[in-house]
């Protein structure tokens, strides 16, 4: 079954009671049993809910895997992965990653005896120097947030396998329409479904997917034990969003390409970070493992002045100044003071998150209007 067909139909069946084509919102906490243990597969909605279950099957299918789990947020999903580890275990992570992930690793789990190393993974060989017998997880973002670095998933998968460590890939920026890490050797795929999967800026959710049965057992045990599950209404919204994922991401890619090329020629712009450029350090890797280059772009300004960046993000009218990404509407943000403010300045700047860096989530509006909006703001 091709992607678009799976996105619309996988895991979803007409309601047996009414024939409703959309999965109903099962807004219930518990389920009547005929006798002790005599139920229809559902006992309590923290453990399993029919609306959430349909979503979990759907997202697993479009990631070419068998097992999916939905959580209350992307960070709750990441939290589940790290809870599969034990004190004394070590994690190797991308050095350029979402600030919330960095905060979770360094301020929550580090104090429980889990060691985190943050490595430039643009060259997978850099990882091997940090692998020890205690390495149990390699955490990858690709494209990375916000510098759009590309990590060779297949190459890292070989390193993880040799080390007998799990490989988890944050696939939020690419979506399964552009990239399927399970096919490249990843053990776990994570999504902030708040972003492209939901697609309409109206839900907060996290997703984990795996094709490994043993990992899935731990995933479901932790999901049920900690209770950080998503609600039936939110599950319904993301199921609806996934039905148009391929259409939306296609437009995000088309608009992103036009805006990246516009920015690259603007006299006030210094550098543009977008993996579709042939000059991108890992452009060939992106071409190999992705089916498009996405709608996320970052750029810096000449002079690298904080006040210039703040002025531009306030001047735009169609782009909305807001955190998050992946919705139908275009967003603009300033990573150093917004999404990545939890990372110390010295660490941020090592990866390129300087004062003038601006991040765009290019929406599905008319590209000409978006370019005119940026042109006006940039002067």
Feature tags:
Aspartate Aminotransferase, domain 2; 2 domains; 379 residues; five-stranded mixed sheet; 12 strands; alpha/beta; single chain
What can you see in these coordinates?
With 379 residues, this protein is an alpha/beta fold. The strands form 2 sheets. The protein has a 7-stranded mixed β-sheet, with helices on both faces. It has a 5-stranded mixed β-sheet with strand order 8-9-12-11-10. Helix 1 packs antiparallel against helix 2, helix 2 runs parallel beside helix 9 and helix 12 packs across helix 14. It starts with a helix and ends with a helix. The protein folds into 2 domains: 232 residues, Aspartate Aminotransferase, domain 2, CATH 3.40.640.10; 134 residues, Aspartate Aminotransferase, domain 1 (Alpha-Beta Complex). The radius of gyration is 21 Å and the shape is globular. 37% of the residues lie in helices and 15% in strands.
Number of domains: 2
Distance between the termini: 48 Å
The gyration radius over C-alpha positions equals 21 Å
Q: State mean pLDDT (0 to 100 scale).
A: 96
Secondary-structure-derived class: alpha/beta
Spatial shape: globular
Estimate what percentage of residues fall within beta strands. 15-25%
What do we call the CATH homologous superfamily of the largest domain? Type I PLP-dependent aspartate aminotransferase-like (Major domain)
Short structural description:
The chain is α/β, with parallel strands linked by helices and 379 residues long. It has helices spanning 3-9, 50-62, 74-82, 99-109, 125-128, 153-163, 175-178, 213-226, 232-242, 245-264, 283-289, 306-315, 345-351, 367-378, and strands at residues 67-71, 90-94, 115-119, 135-141, 166-170, 188-192, 206-210, 269-273, 296-301, 320-321, 331-333, 358-361.
